[in-house]
């Protein structure tokens, strides 16, 4: 038997569909290289809980700091909601509650929150590209 690839968007979509069909509330899988948690939330469908943004400071000027928003799951990266007609320009100010992008798997679209207030300065992944769990997506420069 071969190992299941939990970073594969098709696998995550299949697991989500199976959970919803079986009426299961959720599933959590922990491995040394990461964690996947799928929670079925009633009429709202499934939601996948994202990890917090992680500190990142290489190459920055002394005294400045930034965080990198990472992909909470494997999927397709979107800078704006697929139904939105308004492009998101950079750099732009964001608050910790702002949605800065999305990761999609099948019909599931997971919003990515900034998690920290600051200036969204860089895209670290190509819009529309497939991304894996933990891949860096955005860099937010923190305000001092």
What would your notes on this structure say?
There is one protein chain. By secondary structure, the chain is mainly beta. The chain has 2 domains: 9-48, no CATH class; 54-142, RNA polymerase II/Efflux pump adaptor protein, barrel-sandwich hybrid domain (OB fold (Dihydrolipoamide Acetyltransferase, E2P), Beta Barrel). It is built from 1 helix and 12 strands; from the N terminus they run αββββββββββββ. It has one helix at 9-22; strands at 26-31, 34-40, 46-48, 54-56, 66-70, 75-78, 92-94, 99-105, 108-113, 118-123, 130-131, 136-142. β1 (26-31) and β2 form a beta hairpin. The longest helix is centred in the first third of the chain and has 14 residues, at 9-22. The model is unreliable at 44-63 (pLDDT under 50).
């Amino acid at each position: 038997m071969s190992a299941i690839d939990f970073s594969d968007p098709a696998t995550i979509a299949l697991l989500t569909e199976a959970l919803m069909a079986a009426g299961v509330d959720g599933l959590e899988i922990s491995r040394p290289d990461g964690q996947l948690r799928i929670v079925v939330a009633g009429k709202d469908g499934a939601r996948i809980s994202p990890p917090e943004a992680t500190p990142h400071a290489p190459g920055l000027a002394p005294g400045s700091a930034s965080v990198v928003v990472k992909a909470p799951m494997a999927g397709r990266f979107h800078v704006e909601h697929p139904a939105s007609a308004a492009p998101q320009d950079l750099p732009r100010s964001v608050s910790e509650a702002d949605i800065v992008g999305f990761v999609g798997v099948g019909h599931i679209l997971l919003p990515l929150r900034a998690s920290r207030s600051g200036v969204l300065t860089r895209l670290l992944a190509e819009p529309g590209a497939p991304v894996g769990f933990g891949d860096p997506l955005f860099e937010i420069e923190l305000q001092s």
